[in-house]
Each structure stands twice: as C-alpha cells, then as structure tokens.
Amino acid sequence: MTQEFLPSGALALWRELLGLLAQDGFSPWPGHAAWLANLSPGLVADLVPHHPLDADTVQAARLLGRYQQARQLQALGWIAEAGVACVALKGFAAGFLYYPTPASRLLADLDLLVREAEIPTLVRALRQHGFRFGAAERTIWGFLSDASFMPFHSPDGNCNIDLHVKPDSYPLPLGLDTPAVFAQARQIMAGEQMVHVPSAPHQALILIANLAKDKFAPSGLRKLLDLGRLLRHEHEFAWAELIERAGRARLGKALETSFALLRGLGTPDDWLHEDLGRSRSAVLDRLLQDWCRQQPPSFWQRLEREWRLSAAPDVAARLALRRMAGLIRPRSGVPQGLEG
C-alpha cells in the first residue's frame, strides 16, 4: 500500500509507538489526540515521552496500573492454589512481553484461557474472595460470545476476569483450539510468579481475530500496536504456522488486512512477511485513512468490512445467524450451573 495520502505525523507517531523513532518535537495532525486517547497516560508517557501530559494524570494512571497489576497477579495466585491451569491472553501477555512497563499496558480486564472442565473449580475458588459475574454491556441478542463468559469481577472492580474456554470466538477455533494453545504455551516471569502465555504465532492470531471481530475499528489501536511490537521482539517468528492456522480458521482476509494496516502505517518491512499486506483496494485505503483520523465506522461500513476485509462469506453469514438466534433466546453469559 502507498502512503501518499497519510499525514506524516501519523506515520511518525506509529513508528515511535513501536519504539523506533525519537522525535525532538511532536507533529500533530487531526486525529493524533484520539490515537493517544486509546492508550493509558502512563503508556503514552513511556512510549512518547516528549508528548505534553499533566504530571498528576500520569502519576495517577501509573498508580492505578500498578494496583490493577497486583490484583491480577493476586487472582492468578489464587487460581494456581486451586490447582487450575490457565493461559493469560491478550493485553496481560503483551504487557509483560513487549512493553517497558507492563502495568502501563494492562487494563482491568484479564483474559484467561481455562479448560472447560476446570471452570467450576476456578469459579468456586475466586468466589471465596468476592468475585461475581456481571458488569458487561448487554445487547438485544444477549451475551454473544461462544468462547468466553460474562466478566467475573473482583469486589473493587479492578480485576475483571474474562474466562475463555476457547482462544476466541468462531471462527478462530477452526484453526487454533484450546489444546493447541496449552500445548505450546510458554512460561514468563510476571512480577514474582510464573505465568503461562501463548506462543508468539498464537498470540498474533488471537490479536488478528480480535481486530477482525471489531471490524478493524480504529479503537483497536492497542491490539494493532501489540501485534506490531510482537513482530519487533519475536525474531524467530513461525510465519508458516501463523499463515496455515489463519487459513484453517477462515481468517485469511483478516490476516491480509492486519498486515496491510501495519505496512500502510510504516511498520518496517523486515519485521513483516514478504507476501502479507500487499493488497491495495479502495476499501483498504478508506480503512487506513479512517485509522489516521480515528474515525469509527458507520453501520454500513462495519458490514462492508465484515464481508470484504474480516471474514470469509460463510463466516460472516454464520455470525449474522448467531445474532438473530440471540434475539429469540438471549444468552446470559454465565457458565451453566454457576448462576448464583
């Protein structure tokens, strides 16, 4: 993809967020404030230190991030004491692997992949510490995900655990299932304890599936940044596995679109697979411009992106049918038998 229609400030800021460019000054463009608003003030201070920020705001964000990190690690300790194995996904894994200060990247949400048979044990263990299901936005079709449950949140609301029994919603399990993630999971040191996280290609594919699920809305900047920083740090990346699993998961379009975004924003070519992200189309150009403006897609743009950029046609049709089924019988999002 060419970059002639993109603001130079967007390209420069993207490279700086990746850890590549240190500027003496900041070159704003319409949309730069919205880009940085997607990130916590602590993370902006880490990655774009010359950007003017209120010191008290940064300090408050860093204190909150450290507290939320401590609460997440505490919950992981209780889960381990209960004898339940889990793999920490998404932002938690990315924070400890690819960012200078993990607490600045973490959110209150902690995504954990757990074998379905062990969900009751985990729920009972954390309920002893005040965790309860709830606090998720309800839609007219109920809780839609077929991979996870309603957030399981701590009493203070600073540790919301998304319990996954699949790495992510359909169609990802067609190419990446729970046994595969557990089999290739790696251990990292998080704080003072060992935590399992996905292998690099599995983490990348989960991020791509999430970007596709959100129809590549610009609000997914954190996920694209996680993907870019993953590619920077993972020097022995298993490209063949990523491409093969994406194909089986019917996410070939999403893979191509994700890399077209990375390439279009100026991610270094030597981080990327030589054959991915080289597509050019009007809809991709509009997508890239919307990212630079942080312009959220309209209803019709979301439909267009679902069919043309995100999923194979049969996948988009199945997702639409699932929404319609939810209108008739909305799902609660709480594991069966654990509603109390």
Features:
5-stranded mixed β-sheet, Beta Polymerase, domain 2, 340 residues, alpha+beta, 15 helices, 50% helix, single chain, two-stranded antiparallel sheet
Question: How would you describe what is shown here?
Answer:
Helix content is 50%, strand content 8%. With 340 residues, the protein is of the alpha+beta class. The chain has one domain (8-328): Beta Polymerase, domain 2 (2-Layer Sandwich). The strands form two sheets. A five-stranded mixed beta sheet has the order 1-2-5-4-3. The protein has a two-stranded antiparallel sheet with strand order 6-7. The longest helix has 27 residues, at 55-81. The chain is globular.
Helix content: 40-55%
The assigned CATH architecture is 2-Layer Sandwich
Strand content: 5-15%
Shape: globular
Q: What is the typical, i.e. mean, pLDDT?
A: 87
Task: Count the DSSP helices.
Answer: 15
Q: Which class best fits the helix and strand makeup?
A: alpha+beta
Number of domains: 1
Low-confidence stretches: none
H/E element order = HHHHEHHEHEEEHEEHHHHHHH
